[in-house]
Amino acid sequence: MLNKLNQLSESSGALKPGRGMISGVIALTLAILCFLGVLAFHFPEYLTTPQLRQSYDVDVIRRLLYWALVLSGGLALFNIVFSRMRWLALWTFVLLGLALALGGHKVEVDPNFPDHTPYVGLDWFILDLLGSTLIFVFIEKLFALRRDQPVFRPEWQTDFHHFIVNHLAVGFVMLATNLLVHKFFGWAAKDGIQGWVQGLPFPVALFLIILVADLVQYWTHRAYHEVPTLWRLHAVHHSVKSMDWLAGSRQHILELIITRTLVLAPIFVLGFSKEVIDAYIVVVGFQAVFNHANVSVRLGPLRYLIVTPNFHHWHHSQDQEALDKNYAAHFAFLDHLFGTAVQSDRKWPEHYGVLGDYVPDGFLRQLHFPFTWKG
Questions:
Q1: Which residues pair with 352 in a beta bridge?
Q2: C-alpha–C-alpha distance, residues 86 and 373, integer Å
Q3: Which of 35, 58, 99, 159 has the fewest Cβ atoms within 10 Å of its own Cβ atom?
C-alpha cells in the first residue's frame, strides 16, 4: 500500500470518474488535514499563527473538524463497500483513527498557553489549502482557459511543496520582514504623515495602499528581471509550465522575504490603519492566486486598468513579445504608463516557463538553484 501511495503522489493527469479515485483522494486529503488539525489543537502555541488565533471561533473550528471527519470517513466507507480504491480508503481510516485516538474534534485547548513561542503556520496552511482548493478549483472548472488541463497537472508536486513550506514558514517570514523593515526604514516613519494617512476615508486609503504597494512591487519585479543576480531567484517562479491556482506558490523563499520587506516598508512608513492593511491583505491574497489561475477572464476594457489572469499569464509566457513585460500585480495601467505592457494580436500566450527551460524541477533543487546557476 505504501508503494501505491508513493506512486499516486508522484503521478499527474486527470482523475477519471467512476473508479473511486476522486472520492478516495478527497477522503485521504481530508483525513490528512483532520489529523494535522487535531495536532494544532494539542499544540496551539507552536502550530498556530498568533494573528489568526485572535479571530478564531473555536466552536466553529470544532464543527468544521467534526464534519470533515464524518465526510472523510463516509467517502472511504463508500469506496470499501463498493470495492473502489480500497487501499486509499484503508490509508484514510488509518489517519482518521490516529486523529480520533488523539481526541478528534473534542480536544480541549488551555487558553493560558504562552503567546510568544516559535511557531509554524499549520493552521494557516490547513485553512488556505481548504479555502483555495474549494474556491479556485471550482472557478477553474467553471471558466477554464485550458479545459484539458487536469487539477493534478505535471509538476504539481513541486508547487505544492513550495505551498507547504511558504505557509509553514509564515512565522519566520513575518519575523524576518518586520526586523528588516524596522531596521532599514524605521527612521522614515513620521507621526504627521501617519496621522494624515490614518485620517483618510477607508476607500481612499485602500486605493492608496494598493497603489503604493504596486508601485514598489512593479519596480522590484522589474529589477528581478533586469538584474542577473536577482533573476536567479525569480527564475524559480517563472519556471512553472502550467498556469493554475497553485502555480503562484512556486517562489524562492529569499525572493519572498525581499519582496515582502520592500512592499511592507512604505505601508509601515505611511502608517495605514489595521483595517486598511487587513483589507489590502485580502485583495493581494486573492489576486496573487486568481491571476495565476487557469481561467479565461479578460474583463473587457477594465483589463487596461486592473491586472487580470490574462494580463499575468502573458508575463509568464515564453513568447517573444511577452518577455520582460507586464510587471504590475494589481494595476495594469502602471505597465501601460511605463511602457512595459504586452502588445500582441493574440488573446492568450501559447507557452509558459523560462525560455531555455534551464531551471530544474523539484523543491530542493529549486531552492539550491540560484546559488549554482552561472548562466
A1: 317
A2: 45
A3: 58
Distance CA 97, CA 1 (A): 17
Quickly state the pLDDT bin for 146 (edges 50, 70, 90): very high
Secondary structure (3-state) at 107: coil
Widest CA span of the chain, in angstroms?
Answer: 70
CA distance 195 to 197: 6
* Burial bucket for residue 55 (CB in 10 Å: 0-12, 13-18, 19+): exposed
CB 23 within 8 A of CB 79: yes
β-sheet bridge partners, residue 170: none
3-state secondary structure of 144: strand
Instruction: Read off the pTM.
Output: 0.92
How many alpha carbons lie under 13 Å from residue 328 in its C-beta half-sphere? 27
Q: Report which of 54, 63, 43 is spatially closest to residue 113, judged by C-alpha positions.
A: 43
Name residues whose C-beta falls within 8 Å of residue 42's C-beta, 6 or more positions apart in sequence: 102, 103, 107
pLDDT, tens digit (0-9, with 9 covering 90-100), for 304-315: 999 999 999 999
Residue-wise pLDDT tens digits, 212-252 = 999 999 999 999 999 999 999 999 999 999 999 999 999 99
pLDDT of residue 374: 61
Q: By mean pLDDT, which of 5-9, 181-185, 236-240, 281-285 is the weakest?
A: 5-9
CA torsion through residues 157, 24, 96, 109, sign? positive
CA atoms of 59 and 84, how far apart (whole Å)? 35
Q: What separation in angstroms does the CA of 325 have from each of 204, 222, 223, 282, 340?
A: 28, 8, 12, 25, 5
pLDDT 10s digits, 173-201: 988 999 999 999 988 888 899 999 999 99
